[in-house]
Amino acid sequence: MQLFLLLLALLAGLFGALSGNLAGLGLTALCVFLMASGLAGRATTEDEDHLVRSIGELVIKPWALAAAVALGATGVAVFLAQRDPFDRWSGYFWLLGLLTIFVAGWLYDRSSEGTGSRFLAPRPGWDWLDWLSMGLLTAGALALRLYRLNDFLPAMSGDEGEMGLLALHALWGTGGVYSPQPLPFFSTAFLDHPTLFHYLQAGAMWLFGETLAGLRILSAIVGAFCISLLYGVARLGWGRAAALTAGWLMAISHLPIHYSRIALNNIESVWFMIALVLLFFLVYRDQRIEEPDAAGAPRVLSYVLIGLVLGLSQYFYYGSRLLPIVAATALFYLWRIRRIALAPFLMMVIAGVVAFAPLASHYSDHTAGFLNRVRGVSVFTPDGLVHTLGPDARWPADIPRLFWIQFTRTVGFFVDSGDRSAFYLADLPVFDPVTVLLFWAGLGLAVARVRRFHEWVILTWLGLGTVLAGVLTTDAPNGPRLLLIVPAVYLLAGLLVQKVFDMTRRPGLETTCRGAIWVGVGIAVSLGVLHFRTYFVTYADHAARSVPINIAHEMVAAGDGYRSYLFGAPNLFADYGVMRFVARDTERHDAVELADLPPPDANDGKGLLIITLHHRMDALEQAERRYPGGVRQVHRNDEGEPLYATYRVEPGVVADRAMGSITR
């Protein structure tokens, strides 16, 4: 305990001194007080001598020196970011910290204290067929996520436009859209999302072009590699049949496909969640297959990676805050069965501090950026109650009814409900009937085996996520929030399939086993076709939000020779995120009345592109009378209803009109 308090005091003091954070300095004082007062256990003179000798021995060990360098580099990064958020050296020192803490874990495992360097050693039974299966599933998933990856499937949202602009800001450096300064590494921007994610998007656009497809391709790649990790989780936990089932379902299901095709940070948080579970399964496996005398010395590198995953995930979607809670439940289980040692735990904490400290420093000075989203989506507030139940709801009398509605809506997500967020189509059930059946049966099986580590982790992941991302938030069931627990659904489905498959492998049931395999293959292919048609046919035919992206392309097609005026208020504005990203090089203006259109300018040499939404067709007629000789075009939906109209006046016509005004 004394050693733990000493390390905590050092970490908190370093963070507090470099960032000017009072809470960190206060925690340091508290730790020293507990050590000196004996409230955390009174240390004898021999204990103090042993502590001093242990510290002296640590400072000469390569892995300890690497860990110290990691903390020092991170401290410098925090200091530089606090002094100047635009200082690029803060990012470089932070990367050095990440690298050296990884090296520290690797060195520890190679030292006499460790158990060797067999990190990620395949489990007995893992062979070339697993690598082939995982590779094929990942490749197929990537193909589905790249197929028709354009501006219309799905139609670009305003949030994507804002994030795309921030990614361009990161790519261009100075002179960006939001500020003449470079985009800070460790800050928050649009809707309080951390800015580091936009540098990854910038890298993707640097490779694939400054287009919407180039912006989205990062999510497509990460979404495909979620399947690789999920295969590993199911294979370690239950077997190959479970891995094939979980991997296939996530590869072909329309909800993961959709959120792997939009330029937001949701699917990246899912990747980190699956990676966390995989690392915990590896930790448990390593300690199970080692000899008894090595059970107390697990591979520290696994714990270091857990800490890095926990810290780095916080730079993505808000849902990543679920990861530390799930990790705490897994650590509690390992502690209860005495399979966690102090050294790996401390290295995990250090790695998490190294990864998260710069962003934590920003949050310490901008607490609103950390809390705003939680407050905004919380349903158990007076505003959340009215939002969910209507204006007649009363706080706190209607809280029981609010809880029941939230509970039933969230549970419906796992039955036949759709995603009620603004990013997808609520009419499409998230899961197909086969997946629903497998999930609920697998859930019952997992609950019956909850004392087993793998089932414990999956059930706590599912349960905590259902409550925190579903029951407690508005607009349930909300796809972007619940997406973080969707892989757990596929894992439980895989658990049941593995159980059935193992039952058919008993002696004398060889024919039954082969028949079950063929039936499973047939069902899998049918589900693949079903989800393909659901997304690329049904959803494509009913996709919303196509008007903004179409209007943006109208502006781009007109080019620099035109000024665009949009009569869209209060539904759409020229500075909507889609317009700002796609039509960023055009001249765009909002117009409410005809007087907002400038008088013809003979010296300008530009034409006019006047765009009106369906509710402002009157403005189009007025513009035609003011600028005769233009080309009018009305765009309609499949039912023939007008969506928007354009009126294009060529530069020459504008000039002639201007000259006529001058001569009169």
Q: Could you walk me through the main structural features you see in this protein, from its secondary elements to its overall organization?
A:
The protein is mostly helical. The protein folds into two domains: about 155-540, no CATH class; about 545-664. The protein is about 65% helix and about 5% strand. The chain has helices at about 1-20, 20-35, 45-60, 60-85, 90-110, 130-145, 160-170, 195-210, 210-235, 240-250, 255-260, 265-290, 300-310, 320-335, 340-365, 365-375, 380-390, 400-410, 435-450, 455-470, 480, 485-505, 510-540, 545-560, 575-580, 615-625, 650-664; strands at about 560-565, 585-590, 605-615, 630-635, 640-650. A five-stranded mixed sheet has the order 2-1-3-5-4, with helices on both faces.
Topology:
Elements: H1 2-19, H2 22-37, H3 45-58, H4 62-83, H5 88-110, H6 128-146, H7 158-172, H8 196-208, H9 212-237, H10 240-252, H11 254-259, H12 266-289, H13 300-312, H14 322-336, H15 342-365, H16 367-377, H17 382-389, H18 399-412, H19 433-448, H20 453-471, H21 479-482, H22 486-504, H23 510-542, H24 546-558, E1 562-567, H25 577-582, E2 587-590, E3 607-613, H26 617-626, E4 631-636, E5 642-649, H27 651-663
Helix pairs in contact: 1-2, 1-4, 1-15, 4-5, 4-15, 5-13, 5-15, 6-9, 6-10, 7-8, 8-9, 9-10, 9-12, 10-22, 10-23, 12-13, 12-14, 13-15, 14-20, 15-16, 18-20, 19-22, 20-22
